[in-house]
């Protein structure tokens, strides 16, 4: 598959003090990067500020920032975030996942793909992809 | 009847429970309706890899699941379509195959499996005479199959031209003209000029001719076949029209032109639109809502306009993936399918 890492030397940021959440608890920060032992939070791919939760309207938007502009792992990261949210949130939530504006070379195509639920459904029936996603997600307690 | 003057509501008749995953699509058997004295039959297909056949009891009027078609498709069944005779049911699956099921009344047998697409088959449609089928896939192609003797199906054409997944195929209700819509934001029209089965793309309706600016999810025609509605991820519905008399006379291809755009009615992707025999357009979307529209009858120089007849918020607890009007005359039923795993039967009724 991938020969050599896409981003060999990612910047690893110090972990933020975890504050107690009163809203619906989302734990995107614990998702592991597909190619590094670090979490998406360590790499600042996903930060607390990049997750908007509108509980009243059952809406969540995650804006993530791939570590490099041509990151080919961005689809997998997006899929991991979506699966994590699907597994943790009540089904009433509508979820939009996007890459931060200007953070990826094929931003529009990526956003479209990540939010096409038919493509997501088909991807999640692919055992190889599911295995890849599961490896990135912390084991469910 | 002037629909706009009536105080109409969409009454939930029954919730059909049984699927264990999202329901993608529903299809009414075309020959079953109360008018014919036969019980209405509905097929639904799901992410649980099965198809369920539902029937309404003529006595109690309640719906029950008559049979479950399982153990044939190994992945999501994305769409299903009855042949015009109501004797065959075609099922399109993410497993890359299309199943053909024969309806023996109380049971169904899978009599053929159409293979050829490289990956997920997303939609299947029969032409008006039942002599041909069309299928489409994530592999960007549209296939036309000829129905032969002895449950044989022959690939008559592989149509390429879409640059992304093809979401839905739909034959014209009276003529052998095929329509496909795609993730590439366009609708393509396929037609064989010489009746020799050499289908060509004769028109592409894209953003440059007032078309959609994102994925086009579904296509439906009015009964006369001179108008078509399409719906999209761009949150709009679009109405298209053609000179049907010119096409029927066999003169030449009459192009489809954009008549109007219905926007501002849904907040999330519109997955399904269906035109009833009595000219009501239903739409179902990712905002859990169903909307109904009718022609306002006050055509201006800009062409026809459509008014919102009714809004049904929270029609389901999750995305509405499919809305389909029953084929029967007079008895106006609407079926809807949702990510909440439910199929619902609705009746359009006058408020008491």
UniProtKB/TrEMBL annotation, chain A:
Disordered: annotated segments: 16-37
Keywords assigned by UniProt, alphabetized: Chromosome partition
SUPFAM superfamilies: Fe-S cluster assembly (FSCA) domain-like
Coiled coil stretches, renumbered: none
Cellular component GO terms held in the UniProt record: intracellular protein-containing complex; iron-sulfur cluster assembly complex
Keyword set includes ATP-binding: no
InterPro entries noted in UniProt: FSCA_dom_sf, MIP18, MIP18-like
Xref: Gene3D superfamilies: 6.10.250.1280, Fe-S cluster assembly (FSCA)
Keyword tRNA-binding in annotation: no
The MIP18 family-like domain, residue ranges: 30-91
A Gene Ontology biological process term: chromosome segregation
Record family assignment: Belongs to the MIP18 family.
Name listed for the protein in its UniProt record: MIP18 family-like domain-containing protein
Source organism of this protein record: Arabidopsis arenosa
TrEMBL record, chain B:
Keyword Transferase appears in the UniProt entry: no
Domain of life: Eukaryota
WD repeats, residue ranges: 16-55, 70-102, 114-147, 159-190, 209-240, 313-352
InterPro entries assigned: CIAO1/Cia1, WD40/YVTN_repeat-like_dom_sf, WD40_PAC1, WD40_repeat_CS, WD40_repeat_dom_sf, WD40_rpt
Keywords recorded for this protein, A-Z: Repeat, WD repeat
Signal peptide: none
GO cellular component, one term: cytosolic [4Fe-4S] assembly targeting complex
Entry coiled-coil feature ranges: none
SMART domains, A to Z: WD40 (SM00320)
A biological process term (GO) from this entry: iron-sulfur cluster assembly
Family from the record: Belongs to the WD repeat CIA1 family.
Stated role: Essential component of the cytosolic iron-sulfur (Fe/S) protein assembly machinery. Required for the maturation of extramitochondrial Fe/S proteins.
Protein name per its UniProtKB record: Probable cytosolic iron-sulfur protein assembly protein CIAO1 homolog
Species this chain originates from: Arabidopsis arenosa
């Amino acid at each position: 598959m991938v020969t050599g890492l896409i981003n060999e030397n990612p910047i690893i940021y110090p972990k933020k003090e975890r504050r107690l959440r009163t809203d619906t608890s989302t734990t995107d920060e614990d998702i592991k990067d597909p190619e590094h032992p670090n979490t998406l939070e360590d790499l600042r791919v996903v930060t607390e500020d990049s997750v908007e939760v509108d509980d009243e309207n059952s809406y969540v938007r995650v804006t993530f920032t791939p570590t490099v502009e041509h990151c080919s792992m961005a689809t997998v990261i997006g899929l991991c975030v979506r699966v994590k949210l699907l597994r943790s949130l009540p089904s009433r939530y509508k979820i939009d996942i996007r890459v931060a504006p200007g953070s990826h070379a094929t931003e529009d195509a990526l956003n479209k793909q990540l939010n096409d639920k038919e493509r997501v459904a088909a991807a999640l029936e692919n055992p190889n992809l599911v295995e890849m996603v599961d490896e990135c997600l912390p084991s469910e307690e | 009847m002037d629909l706009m003057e009536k105080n109409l509501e969409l009454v939930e008749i029954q919730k059909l429970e049984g699927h264990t995953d999202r329901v993608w699509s529903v299809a009414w058997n075309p020959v079953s309706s109360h008018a014919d004295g036969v019980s209405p039959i509905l097929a639904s297909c799901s992410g649980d890899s099965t198809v369920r056949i539902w029937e309404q009891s003529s006595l109690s009027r309640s719906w029950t699941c008559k049979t479950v078609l399982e153990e044939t498709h190994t992945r999501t069944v994305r769409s299903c379509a009855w042949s015009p005779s109501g004797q065959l049911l075609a099922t399109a699956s993410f497993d890359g195959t299309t199943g053909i099921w024969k309806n023996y009344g109380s049971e169904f047998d899978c009599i053929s499996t159409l293979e050829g697409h490289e990956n997920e088959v997303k939609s299947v449609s029969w032409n008006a005479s039942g002599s041909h089928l069309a299928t489409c896939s994530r592999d960007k192609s549209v296939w036309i199959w000829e129905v032969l003797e002895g449950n044989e199906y022959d690939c008559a054409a592989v149509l390429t031209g879409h640059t992304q997944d093809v979401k839905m195929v739909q034959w014209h209700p009276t003529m052998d003209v095929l329509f496909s819509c795609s993730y590439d934001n366009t609708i393509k029209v396929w037609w064989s000029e010489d009746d020799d089965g050499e289908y060509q793309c004769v028109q592409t309706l894209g953003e440059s001719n007032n078309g959609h600016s994102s994925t086009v999810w579904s296509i439906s025609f009015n009964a006369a076949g001179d108008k078509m509605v399409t719906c999209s991820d761009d949150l709009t519905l679009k109405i298209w029209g053609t000179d049907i008399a010119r096409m029927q006379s066999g003169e030449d291809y009459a192009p489809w032109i954009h008549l109007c755009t219905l926007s501002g009615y849904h907040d999330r992707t519109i997955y399904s639109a269906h035109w009833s025999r009595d000219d009501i357009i239903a739409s179902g979307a990712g905002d859990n809502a169903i909307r109904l529209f009718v022609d306002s009858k006050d055509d201006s120089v800009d062409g026809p306009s459509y008014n919102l007849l009714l809004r049904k918020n929270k029609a389901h607890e999750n995305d509405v993936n499919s809305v389909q009007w029953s084929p029967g005359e007079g008895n106006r039923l609407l079926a809807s399918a949702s990510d909440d795993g439910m199929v619902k039967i609705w009746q359009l009724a006058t408020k008491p």
